[in-house]
Structures are given as structure tokens and as C-alpha cells.
Recover the amino acids of this structure.
């Protein structure tokens, strides 16, 4: 993961603030600093993250990975989080739909 530069940290903080507002229709959104970036939680369950490289990622289960791949997303290492393409972040209805699926995936994983 490496160390984030001051510029990356500032950009990650900017994306975190934007994501809190953009994802508000999904759930009660909170964040926590993690690994140079931020974990994004909906109703207390982590379902998204902003990486130290200032990229927004959403959790994707097996049912949604093909959609992420088709959109040009990349997986965050071995974690079940996928980058969110700019076409999705620019369309808030689509972002909310993807985030709703991500939260449901995280909640299902937590209940197992």
C-alpha cells in the first residue's frame, strides 16, 4: 500500500467528505480513518472505502463482480472491494444503486 503523500491524503479526505454526502440516501453514513484512507460504514457496517491513493471502492459480492469488471473497475488487492469508475460517481442514482448493493453484500457477509 505504501505511504500516502500529503497531496493524496488531502484528496482522500476530499473524496471521503464527498462520499458521506453522496451516499447519505443509502444509510446512516459514518467514516473512520484506516490505513491512510477511510473506511465508510452504513448503519455500522463497512461497505466502502477511500484508499490511501484517494480512490473510492465499494464492496462487491460474486453477483456484482462482473458488473464492476465490465465497467473497468479493479479489485483492491485481495480484498472484496472494487474501484468505482468515474461514470458511476458522476451519476448519483447509479452510485446509490451500486452502494446499496455493496451495503447489502457487507451486511450478508457480517451475518454469516
Amino acid at each position: 500500500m505504501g505511504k500516502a503523500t500529503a497531496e493524496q491524503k488531502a484528496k482522500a479526505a476530499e473524496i471521503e467528505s464527498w462520499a458521506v454526502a453522496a451516499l447519505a440516501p443509502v444509510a446512516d453514513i459514518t467514516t473512520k480513518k484506516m490505513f491512510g484512507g477511510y473506511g465508510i460504514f452504513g448503519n455500522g457496517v463497512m461497505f466502502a472505502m477511500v484508499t490511501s491513493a484517494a480512490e473510492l471502492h465499494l464492496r462487491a459480492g460474486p453477483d456484482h463482480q462482473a458488473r464492476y469488471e465490465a465497467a473497468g473497475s479493479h479489485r483492491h488487492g485481495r480484498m472484496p472491494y472494487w474501484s468505482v469508475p468515474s461514470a458511476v460517481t458522476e451519476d448519483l442514482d447509479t452510485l446509490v444503486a451500486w452502494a446499496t448493493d455493496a451495503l447489502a453484500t457487507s451486511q450478508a457477509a457480517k451475518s454469516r
In short: Helices lie at 6-22, 65-70, 86-89, 92-111. The mean pLDDT is 94.
